[in-house]
Amino acid sequence: xxxxxxxxxxxxxxxxxxxxxxxxxxxxxxxxxxxxxxxxxxxxxxxxxxxxxxxxxxxxxxxxxxxxxxxxxxxxxxxxxxxxxx
Length: 86
Prior knowledge:
By secondary structure, this protein is an all-beta fold. It has no helices and seven strands. The chain has strands at 2-3, 10-17, 22-28, 31-46, 55-64, 67-74, 79-85. It has a six-stranded antiparallel β-barrel.
């Protein structure tokens, strides 16, 4: 398992399929990774009582070109991140 940037999520750009609500590709390390399938989806929504503690993320574990990645969408910041490459 590879933690991205020593444990820090890396901002990425995601191309999305709106009809199926699934990513079709993402850009990481100056490379476009084509998403073959979504393996798992989950959400984290905690700390809602405090702006400093708030975490509201929608996670996707995907297979892209034979590798497995954990991506998440940070809802308050409205931005995609890569958390880890497995």
